[in-house]
Amino acid sequence: MINGNSQAINPKNTGTKASFFIDEAFKTGETKVFEFRISDKELKDPFGDFDAVFKVSHTEADEFYADIQKGIASEDEKLVQRQAFAGMLWNKMFYHYNVEKWLKGDPAEIPPPKSREKIRNYDWKHLNNEHIISMPDKWEYPWYATWDLAFHTISFSLIDPDFAKHQLKLFLFEWYMHPNGQLPAYEWNLSDVNPPVHAWAVFRVFKIDEYLRSKPDLEFLESAFQKLLMNFTWWVNKKDSNGNNIFEGGFLGLDNIGIFDRNSVLPNGEQLEQSDGTSWMAMFALNMMRIALELALYNKVYEELAIKFFEHFLAIANSLDNMGDEKFSLWDEEDEFFYDAIASSDGTHMYLRFRTIVGLIPMFAVEVIDDEMIENLPDFKKRMEWVLNNKPELAALVSRWQVKGQDSKHLLSLLRGHRLKRLLKRMLNPEEFLSDYGVRALSKEYEQMPYTLNLNETEYSVHYTPAESDSGLFGGNSNWRGPIWFPINFLIIESLQRFFFYYSPDFLVEYPTGSGNYSNLDQIADSLSKRLSRIFLKDENGKRPVNGQYERFQTDPDFKDYILFYEYFHGDNGRGVGASHQTGWTGLIAKILQPRFSRKEMAKSETEISANSDNNKEI
Question: How many angstroms separate the CA atoms of 180 and 417, rounded?
Fold first, then answer.
């Protein structure tokens, strides 16, 4: 057809793929409308009711989103949120990958070379994916990414919680999860290691679904928890090489964030001890403890597992502060920041004093538990108190657990109040991490003063790049060296909200750093949400920062109100960078724009709101 050869078209008019062919000429500036209708049967008058059906569908969609968007006052915010949802729905796609068949090749074709038997993914022969999956990107060759998908489900839970729950369970099924408990990363290399955020997403989606439907889906939570136990065990067995609760994992999804390729093997037996790897695992342990506590309210058996994860969290927290005989800590008291470190074969350590979001990830390991829940679980309470009373060195690590915060809450965290304030001092500094559009992935300090490191007679140098990467690591097409990424920003906001649930509004932090103004943690979280929203919303001149310098996108009526949800964003001006069609985790803007209290909550009386305040705060 393309070359004028009509005989190249299948004369039987059958097959699995088809395309419309429109033989029409267009004049410059002309618009034509074509109507299509897909049906599994012959229709006598397929277009007789076309306009009516289309109008009904349009009206139903408007009514659906109008219900969801109650409480959003701005029409521009509604437009952005609805398009974010649309992008998430558009990126759902059927995905089929059978590794064993791929290794053998197609029966009717020439057998593949023997080298394929030991090629990437050869050890995932069990993997047989054949489902509708939320893709980060279906415009290019479609592929899934497990940690991306965890964030996708947060947005999906607002419009289709059943799909969100199914997506989370999907990757825990035996034809996805490896028999050893590892989750597949993505097709390029199923064995790569992504941050373990699945348990966090499971509990978040569970709580949102429970609230929207006024009924907990315990079957979903319990089923997911059972499989997550296997994944947690895989991490403990495979990514703690020294058995000291200090975890590795390589690049852990943060392409180009390191001084060197974090997947590389260091030549003289050194070991990279990763602040983020250990912090992700502390977060994983707390997530699992929280799920177990929830299940224990219905089945006392889970109290024992809650105790197990409580103690495992303490062990990880202890290791983060007391590594090896020298009691080395990944928290640098001099700089008051978390850093990766290089452990030499003689047991000594050296900080990589390079400030990135890696040092902020310890914030994510935070859980706030109501005193009422503890009282309802006496076995957990008894064991917890024994540990805290008999192991004071561990009790000192769990940020003021024995001191009840506001509304009789207990706090478990890697950060005590002092460390939290010191981390925030850097994160909220416009000269370092704080941008008008969110939190940067790398301190802006390195724009004028690049960080350099001499290691094994090799010099490494890194500087702040707010947009496109100029580093050859990972091909140079991914960049965490400056831009704003939504998943990390989302977890920062949520962590600040959790800390606020424990601390009173009197816990104040200078914001921005150096301004002389002080805000509580909830106010800061809200402000960061507004900074992220500012990327997409019209400014005082009617322009959207996401569209950058592209005048057509800013002013043309056919472009200016159609939003592209980029992969990441310029660290200084908010311009969209990377894949323009990759809604993926940037679709989190839909959740950020949603009012803190859901549409059902706003319909409740003040009495009901007060009675369910703890559930509201979970949402």
Answer: 38
